[in-house]
Each structure stands twice: as C-alpha cells, then as structure tokens.
Amino acid sequence: MKLYVKNMVCRRCIMAVQKVFTDAGYEVQDIALGEVVTTQSLNDNNIEQLDKDLKKLGFEIIDNRKSRIIEKIKNLIINLVHYTEEPLNINISEYLTREMNYEYNYLSNLFSEVEGNTIEKYFINLKIEKIKELLIYDELTLSEIAFKLGYSSVAYLSTQFKKITGLTPGYFKAIKLNKRSNIEDL
Q1: I need a surface site. Which of 45, 59, 63, 173 has the fewest CB within 10 A?
Q2: pTM tops 0.90, yes or no
Q3: Which domains does the chain show, CATH number per domain?
C-alpha cells in the first residue's frame, strides 16, 4: 500500500518515517521523499494512528490528490537542488513536466493556488539555502557554486542572493552567518 507523507525533505526524514512504520509493526517495502510503500494494506484506523505518530515528528499523511501533487513537486525540487551531484543546468518547467506527467501550467497554477508562492520562487529559495550551506562549508569558490547550481555567472548568483537575503555572498561568507531556513518553511 502506498501512502504519501508531507514534510519529508531529507534522508533523516526518511529514516524517522521508516522508524514510525517499523515501530508500529509495518514492513516498509519502499520509502522515498514523500512516499512510503508498505507490504501490508492498512485500514483507516491504522492510517489514523500512523498519522498521529508522524505528526509528533512534524510529518503527516496526505490524503488528497492536490496535496500529493504539491508534495511531489517539492520533493523533486529538493532532490534536484540538494542531492544531485551534476550541475543544475536544467529547465525546471521541462523537468517537472517530464517527471510528473502533467502540463507545467497546471502544476504551476496548482502550486501557486495552494502554496501562495510560485514554483520558480520555491526553486530559487532552495538554491539560496544551498548556496548558504556551501558558503558556510567553505569548500567551493563562488564560481564553483555558481556552476554547480546552474547560474550563468557569479554576478547573477550574487544579484539573486542579495535580492533574497539582503547580503552579498562575500559578506555572508565573511561573517559566517548561520541564518539558514528550514526547507519546510520555504
């Protein structure tokens, strides 16, 4: 049985959700950001109890189609920004259309309607958080970060970073601000 879980944004989230299912006595066949497949079928009472247990950790079971689509969009973008090793030279609309098998206009309108924000702004905010992380780790130059995250130039990355954070990347790096936002809050 496949269940959709809101707020799974990282590998630790996957481990935490899997533990909830395992502790409740359910065998997890497959688990990924936003999705859990169990070997057993679950009735409404089982799902309700799992939802209560998940909510204690900041997760919840999604039971409507629109919410599942939104969560899938978010998880695809999170995977793309945070867990892809190749440079992000990608058109987000083409990527989501291909991965979701929906027209981008539908996905974009639904996302904006439900989230009150555009997919593009969500994508940019995730990239800015990744830039902050990479600046704090201090392992890559700004040019390498720009290349990795698909920016056409350091100047464009810097402009977008300053527009969102109010700081230049250089200033942020110099004072090592630890003002990263939680992915769930974006």
Answers
A1: 45
A2: no
A3: 2-63 (3.30.70.100), 67-185 (1.10.10.60)
